[in-house]
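Predicting holo structure, iron/sulfur cluster bound.
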Amino acid sequence: MAARDNHGTDAPWKEGFQVVGRAHPKIDGLAKATGQAIYTDDIQLPGMLHVKMLRSPHPHARIIEIDVHQALELEGVHAVLTGADLPKKYGVIPWTPDENALATEKVRFTGDEVCAIAAIDEDTANAALKLLEVKYEQLHAFLDPFDALERSEPQIHDEIRGKEVRGNVSKNVKLEFGDVEAGLEAADAVVDDNYFFHGTTHTAIEPHCAVAQYSPHGVLTVWSSTQITHYVQRALAHVLEIPEAKIRVIQPCLGGAFGGKSDPFALEFVVAKLAMITGRPVKCLWTREEVFYAHRGRHPMHLHYRTGARKDGRLTAVDAKILIDGGSYSSFGLITTYYSGQLLTGPYDFPAYRFDSTRVFTNKPPCGPKRGHGSVQPRFAFEVQLDQIAEKLGIDPIELRRKNFQGEHTETVNGQRITSNGFLRCLDEVERASSWKERRVKLPRGRGLGVAGSMYISGTNYAVYPNAMPQAGVQLQLDRSGLVTVFTGGNDIGQGSNSVARIIVAEELGLDPEDVRVVAADTDLCPVDLGAYSSRVTFMVGNALIDACRKVRKQIVQAVAEDWGVPTARVWMGLGEVFDLEDRERTLSTREAFHLTEERFDTLGATGSYNTPELGGDYRGGTIGASPAYSFTAHVVEVDVDEETGRITVENCWIAHDCGRALNPMLVAGQMEGSAYMGIAEALLESHDVNRFGLHAGPSLLDYRIPTSVDTPELHALIVESLDPEGPYGAKEAGEGPLHPSVPAISNAVFDACGIRLKQLPFTPGAVLTALRAKTGEPAPVRA
Amino acid sequence: MLRLPKFQVAAPDSVAEAVALLEQHGEDALVIAGGTDLVPNMKHELFTPELVVSLANIRKLRGIKQAEEGGLTIGAMSTLSDVAASEQVRDGAPALAQAASLVAGPQLRQMGTLGGNVMLDTRCQWYNQTYFWRDALGFCLKKDGTLCHVVAGGNKCVAAASNDTAPALMTLAATLVFEGTGGQREIPIHELFLADGIYNKKVRGEILTAVRIPALAPGHRGAYGKLRERGSIDFPLFGVAARLDVAADETVAYASLAAVALQARPVLLKRSAESLLGLRPGTRDFERGVDEAAELAYRQCRPLDNVPGDSDWRHEMVPVYVRRTLLAALEGSGPVHHV
Ligand SMILES: Cc1cc2nc3c(=O)[nH]c(=O)nc-3n(C[C@H](O)[C@H](O)[C@H](O)COP(=O)(O)OP(=O)(O)OC[C@H]3O[C@@H](n4cnc5c(N)ncnc54)[C@H](O)[C@@H]3O)c2cc1C
Ligand code: SF4
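Done. Tokens:
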């Protein structure tokens, strides 16, 4: 790691932080609230055409013939695309390109894109869709991952990147660290159980949208609701076979992503190709139903765990076997499969660990990364299993977790470096805030408290395409007006990364935050950043910003010091002014300081970068899941179980999260609450499923039930700051970690409330009643 | 966003003009009130009328009035939020106010009308879907197809009546005033509905102008109970209205129970309600009567896989909600709802 990557945890100026650590409203909050923010769908260009897509009505079929003639003849139709027009396969992970913008030979799930029509308006495009004729030969549809595992014919994918696919296995990872069997032998108690995590999806309120324009000089501009502009640019270049330098990708204001806008999607290729063919700007806005088909949500996982512990509660070994239902394409699946095992090795220490994870293809909407990618499911299973161990050994569940705490500045069993670790404080906080000790055993029947912990990455050192260039780059422009503009490739997807950029720059250059503007996620204007995924932006872009700021700060301080004839150590900048620390009467506005500096050094600006240190275990896949810093979380959830209806109500959720330093506590608390909200929703309400016909069970916001405000419990955000040595001022992540424990904590609370162990998600009232009956031995009611 | 098919809109300012338009255009015309049911259904291409006749400009269809002969007359275009908030309705038809307050969510209640709720189309998970989805399924009997996916081999549509106010109005013995080109007629609400999920009403091509609720007996108690997954927005997975008229001698002189979200029409739970007659609240006998009512309801109500969700759980919830709603009516509390 270069010096530029590491800036310590202290404030840049002696007097402490001026901006960081205080609540600042989001940079785009008012624009969003007043309707001024420009989202992709707000873009209207002269002569713009609209695209609609024909989708497969079958879950698995071979395309025999496509007849586009009638559609092309319809007045107002400008072009029709089929798979043959975009034959190059792509995939977000360069090792597994198995997608086509439009199906070439086969369709692999109901909703797979087959044709695209550009017409003068949406209605004409829709009318033309009905004129397309496609002949299919239907194939056996795999709707069950066990079926896909056992049966290799017909294969969903035959080969990927020239490599033959084994049956319907998308990826298998088997790794073992330490001696698992010996660990289990030595244990006083072993819990061996099965768990199931169902599929859920992101439900960002903004549906996917893309607009393309192709200039007479051959420059393609694509505005897209993506969370990774850089990968979209690369994918477009690859599929359209034009140089990256001819492609500009811009992410306008984004209405939520949660991982669901990380892949390159069919609509981006299609609008680009159609703009190139027709010479007109082209837009495609997906319907809510189409967003459900695009999916890339949480993988359903069938999880088997065996965990051993000694009498004193210390864990001896963990053994996991996981079957992952991947849906129809690879997406990030290679990483998901690794993450399902690699990210379990904290905040607890165990000497032996093995996992065997298999991802299979099925004929369902493709799964991918959703908030807490790959690790929410195993975390659920494992944290419930820990509770089972606590029960077996008669140890308080919080105590059991404390006993196994891995400590700070240590290494996990799978070779990951742990730096700061505030997990114990997280446990203390939720224990205190929930009055755990006083209330846990004394609550009336039907009420219960449950705890769970977790860890998550703050970015990873695994760039999806291997390269030695920085993972984050930024550029600063200092204007004579006193304004500083930040150019960053980082994608603000609503999580507030542009707001974080603003406060870091304001802090470093002693500015009023209002004097910092942020231009983000435009590949023509901004240096490359790898985008908004794996909770990397604050950590990496933050460090890159400090790097850039310090370069110009040095110049400013030097210019001012020279002008005043004082040593540089006497110059101090804060909130828009520059002072002489020993003669407070002597001040300049930052604007004047910029002028002095520009006179002295020429036009002002700087670049900054960040790259991760060498990390990860020394084995194949050892860098996957290796992060420069990990966040830690503990939740205590209080539930009320109505034993007559089976309904679980979460009354309170205390979320203690170690985010390193909270750069903007208001945004951190927002992420913590939003994460817990999402986890609770997955546990109790949401279910992304296909029915017996291979059709999505209810692709609408009416049938896919996300909680409304009245369904949302009291969420208590308890920020824990551990100050990471490598994070910007010690910051880590806050956007994904705090989701993990909510799901198992609910299960554990239900056990406390009424003695049943919920091990299959979602925790529906019907499932609760069944479990209650199983416990009492009461027979199920017969349908008279 | 899903697009609406093309159509013409007429917004006459009298009922006479509206019914004339309906007659003139026959099957090609549909009435729109708040549009909260019709518009999504049109987006799903379940209905593709050429002409949509809006009732928005017909003044006399709005308003809640105390009738001279006692009771209430509620204009069909009264919004659900007005019905739910009206003191007159809360006093004169508590179960209706409660049911209206639980329809959909606040924004939809602001647009949705009582008339539209009474006239609501039946619902089914295989039917309330986009054209693409239904096409991929191969459609179903109710629209564009030949098979039923709820009852294998069934040749009758069992899509569920899902209007929350219908059972409340049934227990209140409400009557409906319809107007057609042939004039006005008034029919009891329980006579409106048919056991046919394709179109579950006896009346077609006429306009519902008002809902009349007779004066209540002095000891009237009413409540509504609604089972649904979320605390807002969702249609009922089961809904039950309860009425108990407690006479001067403190016994139950009249009882009525009606349920919705089961089959094509809202159903009166006659035998179940009868088990409470003559009983005195607060006694063991009354408690037993409530249990019996719940048990009989459980036997009569058989939730089908027409609406989404676990029908076994819905079935198990029938006696629970019947019992809770009866007790809420008695106490003057309610609605029975999980949030
Ligand atoms: C997300 C969502 C959730 C919902 N949840 C619920 C729920 O929980 N419970 C519930 O009961 N409903 C629910 N609804 C349905 C709907 O909002 C209500 O039933 C509402 O009362 C319908 O009234 P409207 O005025 O909007 O009817 P419209 O949509 O205007 O009309 C509905 C039907 O009635 C006919 N019609 C309307 N008025 C008259 C009249 N005066 N005379 C003759 N025919 C007429 C129309 O032709 C149409 O067929 C929901 C709707 C949505 C979109
Ligand atoms: S019950 Fe449902 S599936 Fe059957 S015909 Fe009616 S709408 Fe169609």
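Residues A 702; B 30-38, 40, 55, 76, 80, 103-104, 108, 111-113, 115-117, 119-121, 162-164, 207-208, 233-236 surround flavin-adenine dinucleotide (ligand 1) (CB under 6 Å).
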